[in-house]
Amino acid sequence: MSKSPAHRTPTETAEPAAPTAHVPLTTGALARRLGVSPTTLRSWDRRYGIGPAVRDEGRHRRWSPRDIEVLEEMCRLTASGVPPAEAARAARSSTGGPGPAAEVPARETPRSRAAGALPLGDVRQEARGLARAAVRLDAPAIEELLAAAVEQYGVVAAWQEVMMPTLNAVGRKWASSGDRYVEVEHLLSWHVSTALRRRAPAAPQSATGPVVLACAPGEQHSLPLEALNAALGERGVPTRMFGAAVPGETLVAAVRRLGPSAVFLWAQGRSTADLPLARHVATTRWGVKGARRRPAVVLGGPGWSGAAAREMPWPAALKDAVELLSAAATGS
């Protein structure tokens, strides 16, 4: 999947900062910057005293650069597994703020600082915020960040540039850390699935038939299929989503009943990529004699290779699959 760089301008330079660099942030703006929910910031302020030093009229919070520095340290420590109360004391101490020092190093080396971070690489800033929220198991923040990404960029870009990089980073961290991050992966996957389903309204039936989306028999990785379903829903393409591990005979029976314009068959691994089934679906016909039709079969996932990829369309990215299936659904 393609990745776009997070275009951020460094705020620290050799010259004195411009006056606009010191404009206090609102709670909502700071929450988006840090990848937490506004509720989390208010909770930290109330429970641990990690709040703005100055409030304007009406007690609205306005966060200064000094306040933000403390919060960034708080986020880093909690993402590394430090309990919030202890992290709050350490954040105040290590950044020169008031409060007792915690029993953790005030400043860590770059190597130890990255210990709790996810290996994201060069990605959008939204992916970094999502990763921090996932490691903290901050469900409200995860939900808000995912909804904002889908609303701002649309399903395809949000999936390829925010969701997928974060999911892949969690998977790599899980693989290298035993089962330490399994709860992070499960929580993030659940909320990604929820965000995608909210973006996938059922479109009305079309003259050419819906697009059938199914995982190959035995295939349990259905999240990419949910992203495709949501992306097609954004375009108003009618779909029938069957999800994980669809038995072959069930899929063929559904194709005969629905008369779909296309069938998209997902296989994450080679062990589940069933080429004979794909061929059978491609030759399944319906309709009256003299006007019988059959579906276009499109393959998805890294499990397909070799003969399957040469026989049938095998789009490399979500955006390519959306274009191909949209064309099939409209008969173009």
Index terms:
332 residues, alpha/beta, 49% helix, disordered N terminus
Report on the structure:
With 332 residues, the protein is of the alpha/beta class. The protein contains 13 helices and four strands. The chain has a four-stranded parallel β-sheet, with helices on both faces. It starts with 26 loop residues before the first helix and ends with a helix.
* Overall geometric form: elongated
Which runs of at least 5 residues are low in confidence (pLDDT < 50)?
A: 1-21, 97-116
Largest sheet: 4 strands, parallel
Alpha carbon gap, first and last residue: 26 Å
Query: Strands of the biggest beta sheet: in what spatial order?
Result: 2-1-3-4
**Topology pattern, helix = H, strand = E:** HHHHHHHHEHEHEHEHH
SS strand fraction = 5-15%
Mean pLDDT: 78
**Total count of helical runs of at least 4 residues:** 13
Structural class computed from helices and strand pairing:
alpha/beta
Percentage of residues assigned to helices:
40-55%
